[in-house]
Amino acid sequence: MATNKIYQWGIIGLGKIAHKFAKDLQQLPNAKLKAVASSDEERAKAFAKEYDAPLFFDNYDDILTAGIDIVYIALPNHLHCEWSIKCLDKKIAVLVEKPFAINSVESNWMKTAAINNQTFLMEAMWTRFLPTTNKLLSILEEGTIGSIITIKADFCYKVPFDANHRAYNNEMGGGSLLDIGIYPVYLAYLLLGMPVDVKVEAPKSRTKVDESCFMILKYPGKQTAFLNSSFVHTSNVEAYIYGTKGTIHIRPRFHGLSSGISVLLESGEKIDYPFVWDCLGYKYEAAHVMECLDKGLLESDLHPIDTSLELCRLLDAIRINGNIVFPKQDRVVTFENLEEEYE
Description:
Layout: E1 7-12, H1 16-25, E2 31-37, H2 41-50, E3 55-57, E4 70-73, H3 80-89, E5 93-97, H4 104-117, E6 121-124, H5 131-141, E7 148-156, H6 176-192, E8 197-201, E9 212-218, E10 224-230, E11 239-243, E12 246-250, E13 260-265, E14 270-274, H7 283-294, H8 305-322, H9 332-342
Parallel strand pairs: 1-2, 1-4, 2-3, 4-5, 5-6, 7-10
Antiparallel strand pairs: 7-11, 8-9, 9-10, 11-12, 12-13, 13-14
Helix pairs in contact: 3-4, 4-8, 6-8, 8-9
């Protein structure tokens, strides 16, 4: 049941996505940005001023005692696990950017911390909470295009090579798969679940991260997903779901602020569902977290922790098949177990 509580938010990591999130947070009447933290004092000060946050810190530790209810963690991939656990240990509810963790080992540590501290934890998979996704799921549930046969989805944009940029930094969990390929993978997972076979081609950059990732996932019902991510070229960032009775086209960008969904039936009839946005798309996940806390939930009922764990396992399997390795974070036992499952 909804309450009148005003939730005090904090943000750790103040890059581009944190700006978008903070802007959307201002639209929610039960949310107040109280504190922000960066490793750069000037950045933290400027961010706090722009979004009217009373507290800012030039380190991450101090925000843990700033009296916040919820933290949004927008740090690079390799820091998601560490800072999620630190916040959970302080009984601070956590919304952590995707990917949930670098690998399955880290994701299990995070789940354990959430359970031990009886504190809310959710991956910021914003796609799941968008009106477009809800509409897609309702179209499929109604059987409009029959049973799914094939999914095609891509997310590619050109990122000039820079060995120091997080996108190309192996120690930070860089590469196209975890940065943007996760969105096509998540769409396939949301609609078809876990595959039984994974085939991957992942050309590497000079820093040994995947600059592109081409994936073919096969499922028990003989469905197939063709997925692609890349930093080498730009794509339309759209998705197609082919069914026995028709096709769904999620227009660019399929994972975020799509202009709409089109359904083409075998009869030739075309049905359009246009979408107009009054935000940047992040307010929906933030609102969902507060709704869950209002209900006393310790995890989302739409994107629960075990969903994030399964998605991490799938990403691990893709990395194994594509030889995408982060030596500093990966644990051999995870990869050995998955190799047995997907060999």
